Amino acid sequence: MLLKTVTPLSPLQERIVTVAIDAAVTVHRELGPGFRERIYKRACCLELDSRGLKFETEKPIEVKYREWLIPGQRIDLIVESVVLLEIKAVPRLRSLHRCQVISYLKTTGLRVGLLLNFNAPLMKQGLQRIVL
């Protein structure tokens, strides 16, 4: 069985990922766990904006099924057209959440996604970095 090797991210992509993680850590330190996802999403938008990063929120995407495009899916945040942020406030992350991010990455053509669970005691415990 051959394992697929993942090409490293460019220095620019790595920088954007690092800044996005730092922004999420800042939001988590300030607010802590216990709020609804939309509060964390809005706080992340404010933090990213304060750092001069461009982002799209609630970006609609269409899922390709054979020759059809199916609308109705939305992505929490896309930062600098490089990194996808999926924001959660759940007791624990599940494999379904990871699968969701992988599906979004495949659909958008992006290579890196951050699954962020703000309900964790520390952000590093609620962070999963996914690279295709």
Describe this structure in words.
With 132 residues, this protein is α+β, with helices and mostly antiparallel strands. The chain has a single domain, classed as Trna Endonuclease, Chain: A, domain 1 (3-Layer(aba) Sandwich), CATH 3.40.1350. 37% of the residues lie in helices and 30% in strands. The chain is built from three helices and five strands. Strands 1-2-3-4-5 form a five-stranded mixed sheet, sandwiched between helices. A hairpin with a 3-residue loop joins strand 2 and strand 3. Helix 1 packs across helix 2. The longest helix is centred in the N-terminal third of the chain and has 21 residues. The protein starts with 10 loop residues before the first helix and ends with a strand. The model has no long low-confidence stretch (mean pLDDT 95).
